Amino acid sequence: PELSNNKKNTTQTTEKNIKIDTISPVQNNDLASKAKIDSFGQYFYDKLNGNNDILTIETDKIILKVEKKGGNILEWTLKEFKTWNNYPVQLIKNVNGGDFNLLFNTTDGKLINTKNLYFNGNFKNGDYIKLNEGEKYSVSFVLSFKNDSSKIIREYTFENGKYSFESNVKLIGMNNIITGPDYQVLWENHLNLTEYNTVDEAGFSYAYAMYGDELIELDGNSFDKPKIDKKDGQTRWISTRNKYFASAIITKNQFGTGYYLEGKSFHIQDEGIEEQYSIAIKMPYNESPLESNTFEVFIGPSDYSILKSYDVGLEKIISLGLTWLIRPISEYFMIPLFKLIHLVIPNYGLVIIVFTFIIRLLLHPLNKSQMDSMRKMQALQPMINEIREKYKDDTQKMNMQMMKLYKEYGVNPASGCLPLLLQMPILYALWAVFRSAIELRQANFVWWITDLANPDVILHLPFKIPLFGINQLSGLALLMGITMFIQQKMSIKDPRQKAMVYLMPILFTLMFNNFPSGLNLYYFLFNLISVVQQLYLTKSKKGQVVLQKIPEKERKKGFMDRILEAQKAQQSQGYKKKKKN
């Protein structure tokens, strides 16, 4: 209509305006075609148009959509999981189309990404396939060139009961079109957000590559510019994850020749953070008439057992603590025990309670040793106070007298800390497992505890607590702090450590306030059992401590003797130096 109106008013316009307004559509199409050829070259420019038919496939675990544009995975919805606001978990970030593409160079010098190309497929738009137990379904995407003598074929095979599918890439007669020495398989967009706390979710988001026998990890926690890690060499798989879900491309018939990982952080609404990753694996291309590679593409929950079932070390993307110390405890003890209890008890809150009692029972010898040492120190406290008062002006002599006192009664002041240090790897392993266990996600317990993977908020504050940045209060974190205070009050008798009785519970309550309620439930119960055990020992005859001096002949030379000798040597050296002066 604008062009028609301009024609009616040509007498009132300049010659220059008439020329601009009357450019023919044919000329515009020629310019567009030239732009396509410049960008995609002589082989692929005519593949930029087509019918974007969509096929839907449903299994017992997922509902997925594939499209002919790019042969992309357009949607991947997990039927057994919901987002924080009760929508189905759809993991593909498809704002700009689907994902899972190929990238390669052509003989006419172009870099081609297949996400822009329209494939032919063996389905019609709107087709719906539902798979039952034991069933499989394959779909093929084809790009043909030179009267079908050259082809790119991408075949996907979906199997009921799996969170993954098999992908086969065939390059037939493409040696005069694609140039080597490799092509790349891409996963360009990070997974969709699924949790309420995006800052916490971003804290678990990474990209990975299994490079030889080494797990490469990239944390895209940079807001300024993307972090990039890329290497050439034997690569088995690449992966990206958020807190509870992951995607991975696993090579099957031959290893990749390198990887590319890229990640960056973005600020989003409501003070949130999102980390986005792009990953790629290089595959060898020898420019032969027929080349074929097969991949297993996983898109699903970061469940340890599921990831381990692929038998390629994919379970290593789950953070379970230090590889050489904490992870073995998590991997070979904590997780199997947790799952074993759940076979009998369906409620995960009750599983945690039983789990806590078992761990407490296993740690009983260490806890008993710690309590015995604490009671002995409490019994010695009056004599310790006398020594401090008597030698308050001579710190060195005061320390020597205290060491002598410990030796006479066979008490090691450090023995109370040793059991705690031995427990630390176990406690840290529990912390690592509970923070990342998808089993606890949206698992209901009782009363206000409706999600064991998130804080059990009982109160929202109108302000943020400085340093900690929290504006809410967790019920279980508060209970844990109370039990810690009672425990400290019963244990610490030294007046110099009185501040710790109040400071430590407050500090830990604030620190644990944003932790998953399942983790806080464990620590609360652990502390509660300790308090009950300590009360029982204090009131019973078993809790009474009778101090007796150990005869000189029966005293064993050990840690306290070495401290005394060191102090005597230091005192002697100071005396000689003073005499010399």
**In percent, how helical is the residue content?**
25-40%
Tell me the quaternary state. single chain
Helix-strand category: alpha+beta
Q: Count of DSSP E strands?
A: 21
* Overall pLDDT score: 82
Please summarize the sheet with the most strands. Answer: 14 strands, antiparallel
Could you tell me the strand content as a percent range? 25-35%
Radius of gyration: 34 Å
Write the layout of secondary structure elements.
Elements: H1 2-8, H2 15-21, H3 25-44, E1 54-58, E2 62-67, E3 73-82, E4 88-90, E5 101-106, E6 111-113, E7 120-121, E8 128-130, E9 136-145, E10 150-159, E11 164-172, E12 178-187, H4 198-203, E13 206-211, E14 214-218, E15 227-241, E16 245-251, E17 256-268, E18 272-284, E19 290-301, H5 304-308, H6 326-344, H7 348-362, H8 364-390, H9 395-408, H10 417-436, E20 457-465, E21 470-474, H11 475-491, H12 498-511, H13 517-539, H14 559-580
Parallel strand pairs: 1-8
Antiparallel strand pairs: 1-2, 2-3, 3-4, 5-6, 5-12, 7-9, 9-10, 10-11, 11-19, 12-18, 13-14, 13-15, 15-16, 15-17, 16-19, 17-18, 20-21
